[in-house]
Structures are given as C-alpha cells and as structure tokens.
Design a protein that fits this description.
This protein is α/β, with parallel strands linked by helices. It contains 8 helices and 10 strands. Helices cover 34% and strands 23% of the residues.
Length: 262
C-alpha cells in the first residue's frame, strides 16, 4: 500500500510517502523566526517532489493520511481540505490521525535496541495553541502484541491515550498531568513543549532537548498509523468522517461574538 500523508497542524508542513515495500520518503518546510507558515504554497510541491523521487504517480497512491490536529486553525483547514480533495480526485480512502498521537508514537518508538513498553516514559504531547495555552494530550506505550514488529525493525508500539487533547493554560499543567495518571517521569515533546519548557519543568515534566527531532511532527509515522488503521478496518466498514480537531472555538468567532456584545 502506497500512503501519502501530511500534517499542517503546526507552522511546519510535514509530508511523507510510505511505499508498499516499507520505504518511507519525507519532506518538510519549517518556517524560520518571523516567517509565515508555508502550508498553502509548500504542501503540494513537497508531495510532488516525493512522488517524483520515488518514481510513482498520484494514481499509484492507495491511501491519503492527514493530521487532524489540534493545532493552528488555518493550517488545519488547509491540510484537511487538501487531503479531502486529493482523496476524492484519486478515488482512494482518506484517514485522519491525531497530531498529538503522531508526536507520542515517535517518542515511544525506540531509536535502537527495543525495550519493554513498561520501560518507556509516558509522553506528554504538547502543541503551541497560542493565546498563552498549549494543546496537551497524554500517552503511554502499549504493544499491539508481543511478536509484532514494524517494517523498520522497531517495536510495534501504539500510543495508548491516557488523556485526550485539550487546551490548557500553564497554571493548569500540574492538574492535567496529575489527572492523566501514569505516575511520574513524564517526557514532553512538540512545539508546545519548547514554548512552555520552564512551566512544564516546574511541575516535574522532562522536556526533550531543544534540537530534538521529537518536537517535530513526523509524517512518516502518520503514514504508518493511517495504514494500520486502514488495515484494521472490517470489510464493508464505512470510514469515519475526517474533520479538523480545533479543540476550542476559532479566534475569528470569538472576535465576532465580542464585537456583537459591544
């Protein structure tokens, strides 16, 4: 199964092409300080570039995968609308994947020698939500089955959700972590983790180093999760609708409501 996946929930545009033989090609656009996200202008060129590199056509894609957030409103709209358009034009299935789950899955996969799931720290996936908040979600490692392996040789780990994504101000970080359970020893990843490093560390959460790739959404893992979801669907099942997870009301809506009240 050839899977084309992308995520635009953060300022970065992450794209990947997972080929039927298990090889995964990746491309991304990370805007510099002060630069605007390039979702609209970079998404399709990145996808075209990966297809050309692999020597395949859009017609050879079997599945479209998209990160559904939560994240930036404009980014999510661009990503989900592009995914819907591609899936419809190609006549293939569309699968939506939680962006925090992608971050957590990357953090729970061992980079080298596998360890038992109980040896991995629970993960706090954090995405910068603006307005002085972070979208937080909590996960722990859970093996699909003892003998399961991914094609890249890592454990077939699936991020078990302990707490669903929600917008949390720094004052409530401690309460969120406590309610999520799993004891201590949390590892925080994502651009929200770097944005609120001091506040997270103040409540006992370890934040991955500033330059760690774990803070960036990996579209290759998004493709893996989407493919696993598609394989696990029962024959004849109608795929769920793919909708952006805004997790809270848009800024524009709040502004209009405020203006009407005034």
């Amino acid at each position: 199964m050839n899977v084309l996946g992308f995520d635009t929930a953060t300022p970065s545009t992450a794209v990947a092409l997972r080929l039927d033989d298990g090889v995964t090609l990746r491309g991304r656009d990370d805007p510099g300080p002060g630069e605007r996200p390039g979702h609209t202008t970079r998404l399709l060129p990145l996808a075209h570039g990966l297809l050309a590199e692999a020597g395949v056509r859009f017609a050879d894609v079997d599945l479209i995968a998209v990160g559904v957030g939560p994240g930036t409103f404009t980014g999510l709209r661009v990503g989900v609308a592009s995914a819907r358009g591609l899936a419809q034009s190609l006549g293939v299935e569309l699968v939506g994947v939680s962006t925090p789950r992608v971050l957590a899955e990357a953090a729970l996969r061992p980079p080298a020698a596998p360890r038992p799931p109980r040896g991995r720290m629970p993960v706090l996936a954090a995405i910068d939500a603006r307005r002085g908040e972070a979208f937080l979600a909590a996960y722990a490692a859970a093996a699909e089955r003892p003998d399961a392996r991914l094609r890249d040789g890592a454990d077939a780990i699936r991020a078990h959700e302990l707490a669903a994504p929600q917008a949390v101000p720094p004052a409530d970080f401690a309460g969120f972590v406590s309610a999520a359970g799993a004891g201590g020893g949390w590892l925080a990843v994502g651009d929200g983790a770097t944005r609120f490093r001091a506040e997270l560390q103040a409540v006992g959460v370890t934040v991955a180093p500033e330059d760690s790739p774990l803070h960036r959404v990996d579209a290759g893992i998004l493709c893996d999760l989407a493919a696993a979801q598609a394989r696990g669907a029962a024959p004849g099942d109608r795929p769920p609708a793919v909708l952006p997870d805004y997790c809270r009301r848009p800024d524009a809506e709040l502004a209009l409501e405020g203006a009407a009240a005034r």
